[in-house]
Each structure stands twice: as structure tokens, then as C-alpha cells.
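Q: My collaborator sent me two sequences in one message, no labels, and asked for predicted structures for both. Can we handle them in order? The first one she listed is below.
A: Yes, handling them in the order given. First sequence, followed by its C-alpha cells:
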Amino acid sequence: MEELKIIENIEQAENEFGKCYGSFNIELTDKEIEALKEGKKLATTINAKEYTIFISKKKV
């Protein structure tokens, strides 16, 4: 991951951050956030299964 920044949940903030060649919005449910807190990993595909994304909570 090259850059991670916390922004407001509004389109203006997305535009100010900038959208690269492609951009996708990933919205997590409370259940999915709880799974991350429990050390689980989320797996999904995007762009007609062209890309796979794995999401996990960083261990610090």
C-alpha cells in the first residue's frame, strides 16, 4: 500500500485525495469490522474478478 490517509466520508474529500486510473469504494459492515478486530481477514474480488483484495487489521 503506497498511501493511506483517513478522510471525511464525502465525495469532495475523495476528489481532493485524488482518484487514480481506477477507484473503488469498499464499505464494511459492523460484522466485518468485528471480524477484523478478532484477527480474521476479509477477502473479496473486484472488477469482474480481475483483482483480489485481502483486508486485515495491522498488528502493532
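Q: And the one she listed second?
A: Here it is, processed independently of the first:
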Amino acid sequence: MTRSLKKGPYVDERILKKIEGKKPLETGVIKTWIRACQISPEMVGFTFGVYNGKVHVDVLVTEDMVGHRLGEFSPTKKFLRHGGKMQKEQDAAKKEAEIAAAKSAKATTDTKK
């Protein structure tokens, strides 16, 4: 559900104070815990350290990001991989292919000598 137009976008005042009167290239990473803050055009070019619950993820704001929220660019969950029998078979086949490629490369270098 979107925010009401009469309320306007949610841009935190503390973040605007931090970037007020500063140049994007001279300012370092601006740390913030406010993931719900919408990106406004004044923020373009600045680098924000958006907290994801563990570390601050550096987010360089570009023009395409205007209107989105800071938290969208700092994932809170780390995707490892899908598991299961099929995944194990694929991993085993990949490992066998690497071993075969290494053996063939070694054999070609031995025959050239």
C-alpha cells in the first residue's frame, strides 16, 4: 500500500540535515539506521551506510533510485542456495567436470615436454 499523496513522501529530517550544504564527493559514508526513508533528488551522489541488522552496507545513490527506500538496497537476509537432492547431483557433476578438465590439462602439458 502506498503512502497518501496529501502526506507526501517520508524523508527523514535528520538525513537531510546531514547532507545539507555538503558536496557528494567530499562527504564520506553517511551512516544511517533509517531504512524506511525515501530517496529524494537531493540525495543523489551521496553514499549512505544503510544498516541491515548486522553491518552498514554502502549504497551509492543514483538518479534511478529516487522514490525508492534506502532499505531496498541493503538486503537483510543472505541467500546461500537452494538445497535438496537435485542440487547435490549438480554440484557433484560440476566437481567431476573440473577434475576431468584438470587431468586433461595436465596430460597435454606432460605430452608436450
